[in-house]
Specification:
This protein is α+β, with helices and mostly antiparallel strands. It is built from 15 helices and 15 strands. Among the domains are: about 5-30; about 30-40 and about 135-240, no CATH class; about 255-340, no CATH class. InterPro entries: Portal_protein_SPP1_Gp6-like (IPR021145).
Length: about 475
């Protein structure tokens, strides 16, 4: 026997120790999720989402500008470039109702009824959130009437677990948000955590860095929704993502430093204008008692008394603003260039020809091309839930139907030029095609034209009857 064997623990004790260490070092699902939540709450990605939302509301960094000297001005001029660029993109791409192209007329009618103004407004808002925060989310659920509905989850509340590198398939997700509750007659804020997975939803409360089952909210339920009291789970995780671009990069990443610089330059210049008086008096051998008497004499008598060799002069303060104006103009151009928008303050924009207009809108059009591709993919994902709801409720099986989603852009054109081109196309193109390319055309035009043609036909018939009144029956018999 070796000497070290005398001090070594028996074999079974060593095995118990090894097993104990293994058990203690195995992380539980709740511990893993708690770590994910805490990392998400402190992550730069989530902070950028919050920043994007704040800048859209014109809550920019300039509002934190401080002035150490009380007597100096502290202007905080915040310019809403982010809101203007975001609204410009949304108005350009999503202001008009999309067209759902399908050969199945019954399915087309269902699409029109489903994508009503309320849902289209929600899609528009989710597009705005995607631009502000890089990605936005809709959650399908059933309302109190049992109808399939969609609600928008704020992006900074959602932590998705992706099943692929392209971030197309969500295998599960966490929703993290604060909620005010009353405990022992006191208002407190709890951090709620909802874990959506393939088997249902689990509800937690985050306390002291640990997740505890939230019993009042439902704890661990093995379903996603109920229909007539029966539990069901979706075959897919109930979360529809809408990306601004493939990288999920918000607009604010491209323009924040430029907007901050513009706000700082404008505010600093405003401080100088507020602090520097128009002129300063220079007094030599003033004969009065103090400066207050000097100002009083100047205002009352338009004159002041001086001693021998005295003099009064004023120093004009020349404020150099040209360099600041050039910097502001340069930064403004950069904001619209890298924000891929159109500066509507451009003096030449109103008189631009069709080709020139297309050139000026090229960046906006390019950005909206990317957004449109992402939106089409997301709406196809929405259709999966809609089609399966129709199947579950016995309204038909449309799961194999193909739909072409067309976004009708609010294209800015030179109307006079477009109308002239329509007039020149008469005899070359059919009337319907010419009308569809007219800047004032809507689908209601066709119905109104039909009514107009019907009225014209009735008028022709009335005039014909006046010119050739029907014969009296007796006259008809006499002719026979």
């Amino acid at each position: 026997m070796l000497i070290e064997d005398l001090f070594r623990a028996p074999w079974h004790e060593r095995m118990v120790s090894v097993i104990t260490d293994m058990v203690e070092n195995v992380i539980t699902d709740e511990e893993m999720l708690a770590q994910e939540v805490q990392e998400w709450l402190k992550s730069e990605r989530r902070q950028n989402m919050i920043t994007g939302g704040l800048y859209y509301l014109n809550k920019t960094a300039i509002l934190e500008k401080e002035q150490p000297l009380d007597w100096k001005a502290n202007q905080q001029l915040s310019h809403g470039f982010a809101k203007k660029l975001v609204d410009q993109k949304i108005g350009y791409l999503l202001s008009k109702e999309p067209t759902f192209g399908t050969e199945n007329e019954a399915y087309r009618e269902i699409m029109i009824d489903t994508f009503d103004r309320g849902l289209l407004k929600k899609i528009k808002n989710v597009g705005k959130e995607a631009i502000n925060k890089g990605i936005a989310y809709l959650h399908p659920y059933f309302n109190e009437r049992g109808d399939l509905s969609f609600t928008k989850f704020p992006s900074e509340q959602i932590l998705p677990f992706w099943g692929d590198n392209e971030h197309m398939e969500v295998t599960a997700f966490l929703r993290v948000y604060d909620q005010d509750i009353y405990m022992n007659r006191k208002k407190e804020t709890q951090t709620k955590v909802e874990y959506y997975h393939s088997g249902g939803v689990t509800y937690y409360v985050l306390e002291a860095g640990k997740l505890k089952l939230d019993v009042p909210a439902g704890a661990d339920q093995n379903y996603h929704f109920l229909i007539n009291g029966e539990p069901y789970v979706w075959e897919r995780i109930p979360l529809i993502h809408f990306k601004y671009n493939e990288e999920e990069q918000p607009l604010i990443d491209s323009i924040k430093s430029l907007v901050d610089n513009y706000n700082l330059q404008a505010s600093t210049n405003a401080d100088l204008l507020a602090d520097i008086p128009k002129f300063i008096y220079k007094i030599v051998n003033y004969g009065g008692a103090d400066l207050a008497e000097f100002i009083s004499d100047l205002q009352k008598y338009r004159a002041v008394k001086t001693d021998t060799g005295g003099d009064v002069d004023k120093l004009q303060a020349d404020i150099e603003t040209e360099a600041v104006e050039k910097e502001l103009a340069r930064t403004r151009r950069a904001i619209y260039e890298f924000g891929r928008g159109v500066d509507t303050k451009d003096e030449d924009l109103g008189n631009a020809s069709g080709k020139a207009m297309e050139h000026r809108y090229a960046d906006l059009d390019l950005d909206c091309n990317v957004l449109e591709t992402e939106m089409q993919s997301s709406i196809e994902h929405m259709l999966w839930f809609i089609n399966h709801h129709l199947l579950m409720t016995g309204q038909g099986d449309f799961t194999e139907e193909t739909v072409n989603i067309i976004f009708n852009r609010d294209i800015i054109i030179n109307e006079t030029e477009a109308i002239e081109n329509c007039s020149k196309s008469v005899g070359i193109l059919d009337d319907r095609t010419i009308r569809e390319n007219h800047p004032w055309y809507t689908e209601e035009v066709e119905e109104r034209l039909e009514n107009q043609e019907a009225e014209i036909q009735k008028e022709i018939e009335r005039e014909y009857e006046k010119a050739f009144p029907p014969k009296d029956p007796e006259e008809v018999k006499a002719d026979e």
